[in-house]
Specification:
- There is one protein chain.
- The protein is α/β, with parallel strands linked by helices and about 270 residues long.
- It has a single domain, classed as 3-Layer(aba) Sandwich (Rossmann fold).
- The chain is built from eight helices and eight strands; from the N terminus they run βββαβαβαβαααβαβα.
- The protein has an eight-stranded mixed beta sheet, sandwiched between helices.
- Strand 3, helix 1 and strand 4 form a beta-alpha-beta unit.
């Protein structure tokens, strides 16, 4: 359990296991502890670093808005703080957007990228999901004190009284429009997209996002020689709200993270 002084923020992180580093980024209003159910699986043969992003969990807020671009800069600075040349980065929802921006803004720092339940543009969410995001704000501070998210926050937050501020800043962020479709071309890491089969992200957007990464554009050939280096997984029996803690998620991403090479096989020559 440590803090990294990066970009004017004391960023809380924990390390588990050893091996190839994997940075885990949590969902909105959450913290690194969200991954506790699958952490033993992920850390069995790798060095897992869970992070509490600005104003979340153990990390105190600072005088700046919540923006995915600045959160991504924090993760890049953390990679430097840890003395790493590169790291694998996996993020869910809010953390997925941060992971995506990290790979776009700092491509040389990300070896493999896993995005869980995250679109590359705002209208990739279902309209009802967007409507819910637009309601987030301090007016929900008292009702949400009955939620598990607040119960955990209240136990570890440096300033529990900042809960309404976190809600206002999160709501302000979620109301910002974004479309990073063109920016996807900046990513040099191999990418895996993971969604629940009953996700908050629209299936047609999932397909488009995968195609932007070069996947699903053609038949892969019988020997896989035309296969994209990037991957797509749809996990059955899950929703946006439980997929991050499912062993199915770990089972899906571990082979992608462990693969020594993601290049397609050489074409068969008789």
């Amino acid at each position: 359990m440590s803090y990294a002084d990066v970009n004017g923020i004391d960023l809380y992180y924990e390390e588990h296991g050893s091996g190839q580093p994997l940075i885990l980024l949590h969902g909105g209003l959450g913290m690194g502890e969200m991954y506790a159910p699958i952490l033993p699986l992920l850390a069995k043969e790798r060095r897992v670093i869970t992070v509490d992003l600005q104003a979340h969990g153990h990390t105190a807020d600072v005088d700046r808005p919540l923006r995915y671009q600045t959160l991504a800069d924090d993760i890049a600075a953390l990679i430097g703080h840890l003395g790493l040349a590169q790291a694998d980065v996996m993020g869910y929802s809010f953390g997925g957007a941060t992971a995506l921006r990290t790979a776009i803004q700092h491509p040389h720092l990300v070896r493999r990228l896993v995005l869980v339940s995250e679109p590359c543009q705002r209208d990739g969410w279902y309209p009802e999901s967007v409507a819910g995001m637009e309601q987030i704000g301090s007016q929900l501070a008292e009702p949400l004190k009955q939620s598990p998210m607040y119960q955990i926050y209240a136990q570890v937050a440096p300033r529990v009284q900042d809960w309404p501020v976190l809600l206002d800043k999160t709501g302000d962020l979620l109301r910002q429009d974004y479309d990073w479709s063109a920016d996807v071309a900046e990513i040099t890491a191999a990418v895996m997209l993971v969604y629940a089969d009953a996700d908050a992200v629209r299936p047609e957007h999932i397909v488009r996002f995968y195609q932007l990464l070069g996947g699903g554009l053609r038949d892969a050939n019988w020997d896989g020689s035309a296969r994209s280096v990037n991957r797509l997984a749809i996990l059955p029996g899950h929703t946006h709200y439980d997929v991050f803690a499912s062993p199915d998620l770990a089972t899906a991403v571990i082979p992608f993270l462990d693969a020594p090479s993601l290049e397609p096989p050489a074409p068969f020559t008789p």
